[in-house]
């Protein structure tokens, strides 16, 4: 089931976004909720695809969120988020799920409401960078 969403242009605080996938780059003017839903739903047929949401200004301290299909998670997904601190340090977090709608909701919240997910349940993988 694809979630029903009534999000308008994100513009809550004048943050604009670019979305990058394997096959296309979407400027802010081309982004709407259905684009995000279609990209994540398309992971089922293209396991090499990905989505990267890049805000023009940090969301919290996050400079991007990305999601990919994850064979390691069965038929699941890996979502990652990077926080960059004012002192130049960063933290990188990863979350795995088999729930496509959860991934869609995270991406829509990040884009439409400039809302970060609850990182308490995410894995800090900063040491991998």
From TrEMBL:
This is Uncharacterized protein.
């Amino acid at each position: 089931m694809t979630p029903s969403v009534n999000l308008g242009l994100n513009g809550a605080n004048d943050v604009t976004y670019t979305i990058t996938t394997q096959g296309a780059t979407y400027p802010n003017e081309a982004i709407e909720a259905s684009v995000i839903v279609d990209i994540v739903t398309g992971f089922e047929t293209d396991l090499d695809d990905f989505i990267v949401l890049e805000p023009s200004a940090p969301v919290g301290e996050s400079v991007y969120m990305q999601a990919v299909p994850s064979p390691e998670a069965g038929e699941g997904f890996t979502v990652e988020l990077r926080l960059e601190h004012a002192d130049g340090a960063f933290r990188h977090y990863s979350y795995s799920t088999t729930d496509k709608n959860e991934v869609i909701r995270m991406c829509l919240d990040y884009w439409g409401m400039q809302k970060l997910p609850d990182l308490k349940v995410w894995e800090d993988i900063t040491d991998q960078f």
